[in-house]
Design brief:
This protein is of the alpha/beta class. It folds into 2 domains: about 5-25 and about 265-340 and about 385-420, Alpha-Beta Complex (Aspartate Aminotransferase, domain 1), CATH 3.90.1150; about 30-265, Type I PLP-dependent aspartate aminotransferase-like (Major domain) (Aspartate Aminotransferase, domain 2, 3-Layer(aba) Sandwich). The chain is about 35% helix and about 15% strand. The chain contains 13 helices and 13 strands. The chain has helices at about 30-40, 50-65, 75-85, 100-110, 130-135, 155-165, 215-225, 250-260, 265-280, 320-335, 350-355, 380-390, 400-415; strands at about 65-70, 90-95, 115, 140-145, 165-170, 180, 185, 190-195, 210, 290, 300, 305-310, 390. The strands form 3 sheets. A 7-stranded mixed beta sheet has the order 1-9-8-5-4-2-3, with helices on both faces. Strands 7-6-11 form a 3-stranded antiparallel beta sheet, with no helix packed on it. Helix 6 (about 155-165) links the parallel strand 4 (about 140-145) and strand 5 (about 165-170). Helix 2 (about 50-65) runs parallel beside helix 8 (about 250-260), helix 9 (about 265-280) runs parallel beside helix 13 (about 400-415) and helix 10 runs parallel beside helix 12 (about 380-390). The longest helix has 18 residues, at about 265-280. It is globular and about 75 Å long. The protein starts with about 30 loop residues before the first helix and ends in a 6-residue tail after the last helix. It binds pyridoxal-5'-phosphate (PLP). Pyridoxal-5'-phosphate binds near residues 74 and 173.
Length: about 425
């Protein structure tokens, strides 16, 4: 689309760049989903049943893990991962300063203390070169979040972990099928968590998966997963709580939905890649946009296509977040399905600033804990990223094709080429 002086943005009554009804909802549902979900519904097993068991086996095979346990959320799988790695009361766990809240609150779930690391601007991921400085004698583990679907540099993370005898939990909740040095995420750290929430690349409504290749970690995770009652995954239940446990099991209907979607996952990943490329090509030359990139050895799954506005060039460094909100509102008016994801960086969230998880200041006030500092001046890159970003998911997902990506790009271009209309 070329710029003409007559171009009027939709916020001022001009025509929409992306007509209503263009973007189809995620995920596509077909007869495979209907058949499998209905078969589960008509069966006699609705709690953890044959579909849940098969989902574990099929997902482990798809991802290349020895073991998998299906859960009712990705957050449950993260909590299980930390406990499998022996994280306990007062221990410190290193995590990125910008992610979904539960990448860090899963640490609080077991009375452990998150220690945040600032981002690397180009990748939007935890700066792997800043991990070592965050390690203390209390550090037990690292949560490596493959944010937006771009893998963390696991070579660097695993090297630091090895030097300091730390365990690594991969938060792969957004990163199904993403690869680092040719290996799928979730197979590189000691264990990993995936989410099957509706927004994720594999949807079962809600749900998740804990994966590992280590039998010892599997046993510890399984114990937490089901009331603390499992001694080993091979033994039958005797309804005794051997340890503190939760109820994180998945149900059969959800697992049937997940299994049906899993048969289509490779196709979905190809569609995402094609659409992300079409969007990137169509966004070339749009003023004041910073496009997301991969880096050598890392293969993105394009779960979330995250753009940054160059607020310095736009003259809005001082009010970046507020001006970004106006740009996004103008794009939404054009029919572009883009949004603002995390407006708050993790350490700025109230639970961390107040240092109060379980009341009475727990776990930070616990006698096992060492004082930690959440002064926000430590995370300038995360804050800048948060203020400058916008991201999109559904327009790039199946059943949408490259033509939807190109219309989306046209809407973004229209706003950025007429930015003087956004005030
Ligand atoms: C979605 C998500 C989670 C949590 O998954 P749920 O299934 O919603 O519990 C954790 N971490 C990241 C990075 C996520 O995107």
């Amino acid at each position: 689309m070329s710029k003409t002086s007559a171009t009027k943005l939709a916020i001022h009554g001009g025509p929409k760049a992306v007509p209503d009804g263009t973007v189809k909802a995620w995920p596509p549902i077909d007869d495979v989903d209907r058949r499998m979900v209905l078969a589960s519904l008509e069966s006699a097993t609705h709690a953890f049943g044959p579909n849940a068991k098969a989902f574990q086996e099929e997902f482990a095979a798809w991802n290349g893990n020895k073991y998998a346990i299906t859960t009712n959320s990705g957050t449950a799988a993260l909590h299980m991962g930390l406990v499998a790695c022996d994280v306990g009361c007062g221990d410190e766990v290193i995590v990125t300063s910008y992610s979904w809240s539960s990448s860090a609150t899963c640490i609080l779930h077991h009375n452990a203390i998150p220690v945040f690391v600032d981002l690397k601007w180009d990748t939007m991921l935890m700066d792997e070169d800043k991990i070592e400085a965050a390690i203390t004698p209390r550090t037990k583990a690292i949560v490596a979040v493959h944010l937006h679907g771009l893998p963390v540099n696991m070579e660097k993370v695993m090297a630091v972990a090895k030097r300091h005898s730390l365990k690594v939990v991969e938060d792969a909740c957004q990163a199904h099928g993403a690869k680092f040095q040719g290996r799928k995420v979730g197979t590189i750290g000691h264990c990993a968590a995936f989410s099957f929430n509706q927004n994720k690349c594999l949807c079962s409504g809600e749900g998740g998966m804990f994966v590992t290749n280590d039998e010892d970690l599997l046993k510890k995770a399984a114990q937490l997963w089901s009331f603390g009652e499992t001694r080993t995954p091979l033994e039958s239940r005797d309804y005794h709580a051997y340890a503190l446990g939760w109820m994180y099991r998945n149900n059969d209907l959800t697992a049937a939905f997940g299994r049906a979607q899993l048969t289509k996952l490779d196709g979905y990943m190809t569609t995402l890649k094609t659409n992300a490329q079409a969007l990137a090509d169509a966004l070339k030359g749009v003023p004041h946009l910073i496009l997301p990139t991969e880096y050598a050895g890392a293969e993105h799954n394009w779960y979330n296509y995250t753009l940054r506005f160059d607020m310095k060039a736009l003259g809005h460094e001082h009010d970046a977040g507020a001006f970004r909100d106006k740009l996004v509102a103008a794009m939404k008016a054009e029919g572009v399905q883009t949004g603002v994801w995390q407006k708050f960086i993790l350490p700025a969230m109230t639970v961390f600033q107040a240092k109060n998880g379980y009341g009475q200041g727990c776990p930070w006030s616990c006698s096992h804990a060492r004082p930690v500092n959440y002064d926000l001046k430590q995370y300038p890159v995360a804050q800048k990223h948060s203020d400058w970003h916008t991201g999109m998911t559904v327009p790039l997902r199946a059943p949408n094709g490259p033509e939807v990506a190109r219309l989306t790009a046209a809407g973004i271009r229209k706003v950025m080429e007429n930015v003087e209309q956004v005030k």
